[in-house]
Amino acid sequence: MPMPKWWGHVNKRVFNPRAISNGKWPVLTHVGRKSGKSYRTPLDAYPVDGGYLFVPVYGSGADWVRNVLASGRARLEINGETMELDNPRLIGESEAFQHLPDAARPPRLMRITRFLRMDLAAS
């Protein structure tokens, strides 16, 4: 099963701000589907042909995933470089595992079967 929701709330308020401030994690900037507010979420981002792949450890129903799917775009910052992403879509485990390194694959016990893939936006 994906990580428990209560841990996500702790992570969002305690650990995410620290991860963002230290600048070592890729940060996805997205807009809230209800609030319209801009959010910054530190995530692992794996390059794939023409875009990036994300592992939603809290499941495909996590707020950041739903926000990105609703808006159709996001901005990704990695090592000081900013990229615009669009065309978000959930993909299955078999497609995701073709692109993810073995070390990035979530343990089977987490039962994560849907992954978020996004394309680099045309300039």
Question: What is the compact description of this entry?
Answer:
With 123 residues, this protein is of the alpha+beta class. It has helices spanning 5-22, 63-71, 93-99, and strands at residues 27-31, 38-42, 46-48, 51-54, 73-78, 81-92, 114-120.
Question: How would you characterize the overall build of this protein?
Answer:
The model has no long low-confidence stretch (mean pLDDT 84). Helices cover 28% and strands 34% of the residues. The protein contains three helices and seven strands, in the order αββββαββαβ. The protein has a seven-stranded antiparallel sheet. Strand 3 (46-48) and strand 4 (51-54) form a beta hairpin. It has helices spanning 5-22, 63-71, 93-99; strands at residues 27-31, 38-42, 46-48, 51-54, 73-78, 81-92, 114-120. By secondary structure, it is an alpha+beta fold. Pfam families: F420H2_quin_red. This is Nitroreductase family deazaflavin-dependent oxidoreductase. InterPro entries: F420H2_quin_Rdtase, Split_barrel_FMN-bd.
Offer a few descriptive terms.
3 helices; 7 strands
Topology:
Blueprint: H1 5-22, E1 27-31, E2 38-42, E3 46-48, E4 51-54, H2 63-71, E5 73-78, E6 81-92, H3 93-99, E7 114-120
Antiparallel strand pairs: 1-2, 1-5, 3-4, 4-7, 5-6, 6-7
